[in-house]
Amino acid sequence: MPHYVPKDSLLSRIMPQLPKPVGCLVILAWMIVLIPVLPFHLWRQSLRRNWLAKRLAEQGRFLSWTEFLTRTSDSPGTVVIEVGNKLQSRFWWTAEKILSQAPTEPPKYAELNIIFYGGATYHPFSRWCYENYLAPDTGTAFLVSSFDAGFETFPFDPEYDEQMKQRFPNQGVVILTFYDTRFA
Q1: Closest by alpha carbon to 143, among 42, 45, 84, 71?
Q2: How far apart are CA 164 and CA 34, in angstroms?
Q3: Residue 184 pLDDT
Q4: Which of 171, 3, 143, 184 is nearest to 72 (CA)?
Q5: Where do runs of H (alpha helix) occur along 132-178?
Q6: Whether residue 123 has pLDDT greater than 90
Q7: Which comes out higher in pLDDT, residue 14 or 117?
Q8: What separation in angstroms does the CA of 176 have from each of 30, 33, 125, 165, 167?
Q9: Domain spans in the chain, listed from the N-terminal domain onward
Q10: Cα 106 from chain centre
Q11: Do the Cβ atoms of 138 and 56 come closer than 8 Å?
Q12: Mean pLDDT taken over the chain
């Protein structure tokens, strides 16, 4: 049975039909543009991430994964996890109990939109947490090198927040989307 195709679709009214050779040329032109630009973009993005890690290491605010595990098992504190679409989760740690000092409740993991981050739709807790703990200039939390994590750090599971609370039982766990996307 053939698929139903309306005779006068909205797409055909607003977009002209291109001949097939022209469409192929458009695709070829996009490939010519994207092939050299994509590696440059990925390289630039890794430079920004490395710059953040280097800057925080100079300030004494960088932990290896083994140091992080030692601190989270020995002393109470808070683990802040920044998550985003197509990005590795970023772990932060502070000895302070963020949840007891916060002016408002953090957003629930189920309410986070990890696909779209940035803009004016941030939860007030996210801004407060960024300014006080995560910002490169004014924050106090330690950035953790999560490359040696040994477990899946991408937040695909709907129970990701519960998994992280079980993984770090002595800590308060806060999960946020990336607030400052310059270093994502």
Answers
A1: 71
A2: 37
A3: 60
A4: 171
A5: 160-167
A6: no
A7: 14
A8: 35, 34, 9, 14, 17
A9: 1-58, 60-183
A10: 16
A11: no
A12: 81
Q: Retrieve residue 67's tokens.
A: 């140091």
Token pair 């703990």: residue: 133
Cα separation, 103 vs 93, whole angstroms: 19
Could you tell me which of 122, 100, 119, 102 has the C-alpha nearest to residue 111? 122
Query: What confidence tens digit (pLDDT) does each residue in 70-110 have?
Result: 999 888 999 999 887 767 788 999 999 999 999 988 888 87
- The answer, yes or no, to whether residue 124 has pLDDT greater than 70, is yes
Handedness of CA 152, 158, 163, 164 (dihedral sign): positive
Whether residue 32 is predicted with pLDDT greater than 70 in this model: the reply is yes
pLDDT at 33: 82
Residue 77 identity: G
Is residue 27 predicted with pLDDT exceeding 90?
A: no
Spatial neighbors of 68 by CB under 8 A, at least 6 apart, are 91, 93, 142, 144
Strand-pair partners of 80: 92, 174
Tokens of 169: 């039982």
- In 121-169, the DSSP E strands lie at 142-144
